[in-house]
Amino acid sequence: xxxxxxxxxxxxxxxxxxxxxxxxxxxxxxxxxxxxxxxxxxxxxxxxxxxxxxxxxxxxxxxxxxxxxxxxxxxxxxxxxxxxxxxxxxxxxxxxxxxxxxxxxxxxxxxxxxxxxxxxxxxxxxxxxxxxxxxxxxxxxxxxxxxxxxxxxxxxxxxxxxxxxxxxxxxxxxxxxxxxxxxxxxxxxxxxxxxxxxxxxxxxxxxxxxxxxxxxxxxxxxxxxxxxxxxxxxxxxxxxxxxxxxxxxxxxxxxxxxxxxxxxxxxxxxxxxxxxxxxxxxxxxxxxxxxxxxxxxxxxxxxxxxxxxxxxxxxxxxxxxxxxxxxxxxxxxxxxxxxxxxxxxxxxxxxxxxxxxxxxxxxxxxxxxxxxxxxxxxxxxxxxxxxxxxxxxxxxxxxxxxxxxxxxxxxxxxxxxxxxxxxxxxxxxxxxxxxxxxxxxxxxxxxxxxxxxxxxxxxxxxxxxxxxxxxxxxxxxxxxxxxxxxxxxxxxxxxxxxxx
Amino acid sequence: xxxxxxxxxxxxxxxxxxxxxxxxxxxxxxxxxxxxxxxxxxxxxxxxxxxxxxxxxxxxxxxxxxxxxxxxxxxxxxxxxxxxxxxxxxxxxxxxxxxxxxxxxxxxxxxxxxxxxxxxxxxxxxxxxxxxxxxxxxxxxxxxxxxxxxxxxxxxxxxxxxxxxxxxxxxxxxxxxxxxxxxxxxxxxxxxxxxxxxxxxxxxxxxxxxxxxxxxxxxxxxxxxxxxxxxxxxxxxxxxxxxxxxxxxxxxxxxxxxxxxxxxxxxxxxxxxxxxxxxxxxxxxxxxxxxxxxxxxxxxxxxxxxxxxxxxxxxxxxxxxxxxxxxxxxxxxxxxxxxxxxxxxxxxxxxxxxxxxxxxxxxxxxxxxxxxxxxxxxxxxxxxxxxxxxxxxxxxxxxxxxxxxxxxxxxxxxxxxxxxxxxxxxxxxxxxxxxxxxxxxxxxxxxxxxxxxxxxxxxxxxxxxxxxxxxxxxxxxxxxxxxxxxxxxxxxxxxxxxxxxxxxx
Lengths: 500, 505
Fold this sequence. Notes:
The structure holds two protein chains of two kinds. By secondary structure, chain A is α+β, with helices and mostly antiparallel strands. Chain A has helices spanning 3-6, 45-59, 89-98, 127-138, 169-172, 305-309, 351-358, 378-387, 472-476, and strands spanning 15-17, 23-25, 33-38, 68-74, 85-86, 109-113, 119-123, 141-153, 159-160, 165-166, 185-194, 219-222, 226-233, 239-240, 242-243, 266-267, 272-278, 292-298, 312-318, 334-344, 389-393, 405-407, 412-418, 428-430, 435-437, 440-442, 452-457, 463-469, 480-486. Chain A has a five-stranded mixed beta sheet, sandwiched between helices. In chain A, strands 11-8-13-17 form a four-stranded mixed beta sheet. The longest helix of chain A has 15 residues, at 45-59. In chain A, 49% of the residues are buried. The mean pLDDT of chain A is 93. Chain B has helices at residues 2-17, 50-54, 83-87, 112-119, 127-130, 153-161, 176-185, 233-239, 318-327, 351-366, 450-460, and strands spanning 39-45, 96-97, 145-146, 163-169, 200-201, 204-205, 244-248, 255-256, 262-263, 267-269, 275-277, 315-317, 333-337, 374-380, 428-434, 442-444, 448-449. In chain B, the strands form five sheets. In chain B, strands 1, 4, 7, 12, 13, 14, 15, 16 and 17 form a nine-stranded mixed beta sheet that branches. A two-stranded parallel sheet of chain B has the order 2-3. Chain A binds chain B through residues 158-159, 166-167, 172, 176-181, 183, 185, 353, 356-363, 367-368, 370-374, 376-377, 379-380, 383, and chain B through 106-114, 133-136, 138, 175, 198-199, 207-208, 210, 216-218, 220-223, 255, 257-259, 261, 263, 265, 267, 274-277, 279-281, 340, 345, 347-348, 385, 402.
């Protein structure tokens, strides 16, 4: 099945009529959470019971209830309460379909939209459980994440910062742009943080996250939290956000499983989707873990291709009681998230766009050659494919990764993530210091695709030090970074916010 | 150092030509010319066979909603597609009209060998098999496709007001670079490199290897970059102190790497919405010659120096052309090459993009103060492999391993190695002349080829011919003067068109 045929986004717009016959649209309710109760007409006993159950559940929210507007919709006028919006059967079906609900039970469907009109979840609970779920959803930690097509530069400095020298001929094949070599800048799809559900303003990345590079914003939780992650797909093909470790229903899986009905969280171009994640104990640190753990998230509409296209990020979950208000672990001074992944641009969804834009027409060995006598040789094709393999840390090559700065004596936590394919067997190694992982001391860890390591460091050795994959082929191809340990009192260098 | 070498070689060339290096005229308008034309502007576009654009001229299908074309009374006929060729074509598909909605098509095979196979011993019946598009999603039968005046509306309207040829050919078979070299030199010989299979044979280039004197070129394992030991029209113009330049979209570097190497990474968007890299080194023929190259793509030192010898060495970006037109002096001879998105080449450009470029260029030029003494020649580097029904006259036989016209290794009966790997004439191409001195609504039938444009320049400024060592085909080429009438009163009315539709503004 193609990602497009799986893709779905809510359409919460409606046009209905008030009991007095005035036209009422969804716009009248935005700015608060909207709890739409679709009732079967006539609203018989079971329906009346549900109406009153919902009313009580919302009242039980206390002060929070002010932020939630309940609206009943049905096909008939003159219902008992007199405050039901009504519309034709087609209009009601449209409301249900727009929320991804097929058919309605005898008690109707209860649908929650957020203050921007983005559908959150269908609610089936009743009584206290309904109140509890509503409270969780209304007070959830919210992230607004846009999927944007944007240019990404793997090596903006164009030099090997580890050696402080121009790139040699082999290194240049990954960085320099030529007629049949893309170089270091590619069109990619990247998760960007946005300030709110209008998706108009990109969230500025704070200096401590400048090193994230092309990773999406870090999603945080304290065990017990519920998360709402609202994703807008501004790109030209379906994408999703699939998270590891957290608890979700199929509707928030961001991946399709055969035979499971309903939306999967695969978002069509232009669509917006709310993922709801819970963080029970099993989503947070285990008995042998430090106070926080890391999980990757990535798009899973076309698994593999989406990650190579650039849609990757991290979730940090902190142990219950160990989190600051922002979710970060209290017993840590500084956190770094590093992804070791070979971005295989040969298998990016945007390969052809990159060929068109960055190579001379007809030259890239990936394109079909029209001139028989101009067909590329195997050697040329191999060189082309290799030039599109980016042995990157957070999307940076040759120590171009900025912002790995810390002080002597700080409690530093490194979240190390692997993603990719069979070549993605990485051994990140710190020069200059050691770390502890699960109570064991080392200076080198192992990550494979979708595995993670949490390593704690208390740097005692000031200086600028290498942090690189110790697989030599990967090291040679640019999977390197520098981190700086400054004396205690030194101000941290001002690090650019990263790429726009 | 370079300028000293350059002037030394100029004097040597002048000696060879039996002339003195003349004092530079203060402007192109002051130079002595054989005709009233003081400025030739060659717009050298990409990859269009004659029938692909003019096969049904002057009759367009005129479907509703498309820019309409109705021929003027008295429009002469062209050697186009007959009812018989339309309905019973010897190829495995009949010609088909392509609609303007098809803004960018698949690219066809336009290799030196493939094209000869398509012309199949004079039967012209193997286009689908040998030059048809082969990519996934491409239909090889589309090679039989043609556009009409509802798509290439501007070119048809220019033909109505000015002059065109229906008997103009590529000097030889094959792709872009041989066409570009024949334009500026009438020769593809003298390549200073060992043979490269299918691409270069005994120093004669039949393919698109990148120029060695272009910092934006790239050598790969199978594609060396090459240079040519020899001369081109730039040398002749320099020897006569005349201003000239090759102006190409995307020539200005987008970036300089830390090691000093340059990147030509600019791009623009074509009608299909694709962002296309602008610059093609192998479309820049002067970069194959050390003495006329600008390897680092340096800009001119001033607007006044555009066309004259400085660090840019006559090789420029298109933006420099307009600087010269609007703030300096239009050179005596200018060659314009569009960005890849607008050069008309299937795969990366198309007729709508090309029309935008042609019309914007022509509108602006007609409004310039140089127009009264300017001749614009629109010509093409190759056919792309698109079907054309005319068998090119076999003027230059060849017996190279790359030849295939009359069987493997055979293009006519070649007796002299001098013409090996230059089988020609090649496919029939579009040629349009736009000038106050162009004949009006005229179709010239004189047999001409790319080297005829070179010859016109040589004759207009009395440059003489290319040195014998270059084995140029300039002397043998037919004259394009039939497109002009230098005795009649020049046309003063301009023909300003809409760049989107090609209709009169």
